[in-house]
Every structure is written in C-alpha cells, then in structure tokens.
DNA sequence: TAGATTGTTAATCGATTAACAATC
DNA sequence: TAGATTGTTAATCGATTAACAATC
C-alpha cells in the first residue's frame, strides 16, 4: 500500500529498460538464469544496485545461481505497465514525427502510435510508415472515438504549448513532449519530456569535466 | 578547485537548458531583469532551487529585483561550454538520423553536425538538409582531417556497439547514443544516451502512479 | 522605511552503497 | 562442505528544501 503511494524510485524505473533489453537478448541466446553480478557487469552498474532494483519487481532469486530470466522480464514489463498496449496519437508529421511514427521499438514497450495529425494539409492523407496522417481539426473527434489517452508532441517549440492545451482539452491524460519547450499544464496531466538540449547539456558537462580532470592529472594527447 | 573535480550537480545541469530557453525568450521580449521567483513559477520549480542552480553559474543578483538576464544567459552558456561550437559526425542516415541532421536547435547549444555516414551506398552523395552523407569507410579519414571529437550514433541497435567501437578507434572522445542499446566502452570515453525507452518508462510509471492515486482518493471520471 | 528577494548555513529527504547473515 | 550469490538492515552520500540574516 505504501508502495502504491510512493512507488518505485525514478532512477530504478530508468534502469528497467536496460535490464529488459539485456534479459531479452539472453533469452534469445537460450539462457535461462542470470545473476545480478552478471547484469551489473554488463551494464556498468554495481551488483548491489541491480539487486535493489530487482527487489522492486518482487522477484526473488536463488543464492549462488541468480534469477530466472523469463520471470524477470515478465515482472519488469508488468511493473512498467507495458503488458497492456496503449494507443497514442502523434502531433506533428515533420522529420522528427516521421521518425517516431516509423520507430519499431515502441511495440516492445506496449506503445502504439495509431494516428498522426498535422496542420499542413499537404501531409494529410499520406502515411508515415503505417501511420495515417490526418488534419489537426479531426484530432478531437479521433481521440474521443478511439479512447486514446497518450499524446506525443513533435511540433515546433512555438506551437507546443498550444497543442498541449488542445490535447488536454481533448481528454488526453499523458503527454510525451519532444518539442524544446517546457509545458505549463494542469497538475493532473502527466508530462514527460525527451529533451535533446537536456541530454546534450549532460554530455557537454561530462566532456568539460573530463577535460578538466585530464588536465589536473597531467594527461597529454601528444608530445 | 574542488568545483572542478566534482563539478556542478547533474540535476542542475539538466535544468540549465530550460532556464536558457526561457531567459532567451525574455530577452527577445525586451526584458532586462528577472527574479528566481519568476523563473521558478514559470518552470514549475521552487524558488530556492532556482537560486541554488543560479549560484552554480557564479552570477549574483540584486535583492528585490533579481538577475540581469543577459548575464545569466552568458554564464549558463559558458558553464555548459556551449560558447565554443563543437563539430560532430552523425552515423546513420535513416529516419532518426535525418531528423537529427535537420534539427535546427543544435546551433544554440554550440553543436554542429558537419557530416553524416552510412553503410547504405545509395544514401552516400545525398544530403540530409545541409549535411552531406558519406560512406562509412571514409569516416576515419574524415575525423582525422577535420578534428571532430563528438560522434552521434543513430544506427539500429545491433550495429550500435560496433559503430561506437569504430568511433573510439577513430579518436572520438564523446558519443551521443540514440540507439536502444547500452554501450560498453573504455572508461575514458564520455557516453550519453538519449533513450526513448527510458523516457517512456518514466511516463508509464507516472501514469500508473497517477491511476493508483486517483483510485486511492476515490476520484472517478464519470458516474 | 517596509517588504520582497537574495545568498548562506543547516535540516531533511531519498538513493546509493556497505556490511553481513541466510541460503543453495 | 565451501563459496558464490541473495536479501536485508544500517551507513553514507548528495540533492532538495527550510530557515533566516543581509540587502536594496
């Protein structure tokens, strides 16, 4: 019960997909069991951390051998709620939207982009891979009829806030935002960013730190 | 000195791009000063946190009024190392690679994708927006000649590890990985993922938590 | 001046890590 | 059995938040 309220730590949630990918690979290779030690080694984590993470799924292992791979996979998928496929609409059929619509990996997370919408009338009627593109005007009707509850935003920054508000108005409860803009929405709407700037900022900071440390330790490239 | 070794906290680094976007917008609107309170309000953060973050840039404010916007922008850009443009090569000219090559926002982070590389010979000789596509064989030569030190990986998961190793072999020191695969590389190589699965996992977890909480508090959609 | 905002020091909170007994 | 690995409890670490004096 306490678990429901606070839930699994976000850092743990973020590591789950990595475990999942590796476990699925092991399963394909015909393996049946794996130890936390091995997972840690392969993913550059500490064994204790892997054990703590796994304990969040409720799965128990056997001392000396480890965990049953198929059980772990099932438990992680269930913990993330990826066992029930969720339909999503995509807003924005530009280059990024197009790449997202065609991305095949979503299937394994239980996410299905069922339709795309764009203001550009020329794009309407076309398809992004398997995903049909409709005019933005038909968004509300589509969402209501098909009970979609996730919206993927891939429009230019200037339009993002407006589109997000439109989605909320249409009854969408969760928004996955790829536009470089921080959205201001009611608290009960779940928003998750995938922000290239944020990711690159971390890369930049790490590079800067590395350079600083290299210089401190007197490392040189050539001499 | 201590600062160099440990550096600015990663969570702070992650918030910098959001500050930056907002500050630049304010500057365009002709504003000159802004308080931490206003920034916090607009970004859904707490004022104390914004002040702590700003203190990492070394910028000092004036009680009652706040901070000089242009100084803040300059300081954040400098802190991130975005004041010196960095050249990067892109590996993989598929849909995602194409979207990345055409993305205009990189300019404001000091990142410039100067060339793309692909194994598919049909793609070579074409352009992704302004970015020319070359055969993978010419990667090593290009990197050496042009002193590129960032590699952006946008290839299928199965090829990611191999491509990353190739990049390291070519002398690349930082890799921005968009492939859904955890890379195993020497410690001195800086790796940053932009993993859709991770981002979607967080969204999924938040949705699950929200549903659980809504049920706990007895909220209903319709009755 | 009065009051809002800054900057700093201390308290709290949450995640990671360490230590170690339990177990196969 | 011996030794590797699990699971739990406690210690550490780092970031967030609170409290409050300084300041314009």
Automatic annotation (TrEMBL), chains A, B:
Transmembrane segments: none annotated. InterPro entries: CoA-bd (IPR003781), NAD(P)-bd_dom_sf (IPR036291), Rex_DNA-bd_C_dom (IPR009718), Tscrpt_rep_Rex (IPR022876), WH-like_DNA-bd_sf (IPR036388), WH_DNA-bd_sf (IPR036390). The keyword Transcription applies. NAD(+) binds at residues 92-97. Keywords: Cytoplasm, DNA-binding, NAD, Repressor, Transcription, Transcription regulation. Residues 18-57 bind DNA. GO terms for biological process: negative regulation of DNA-templated transcription; response to redox state. One of its GO terms (molecular function) is DNA binding. Homodimer. Modulates transcription in response to changes in cellular NADH/NAD(+) redox state. NCBIfam families: PRK05472.2-3, PRK05472.2-4, PRK05472.2-5. Belongs to the transcriptional regulatory Rex family. This is Redox-sensing transcriptional repressor Rex.
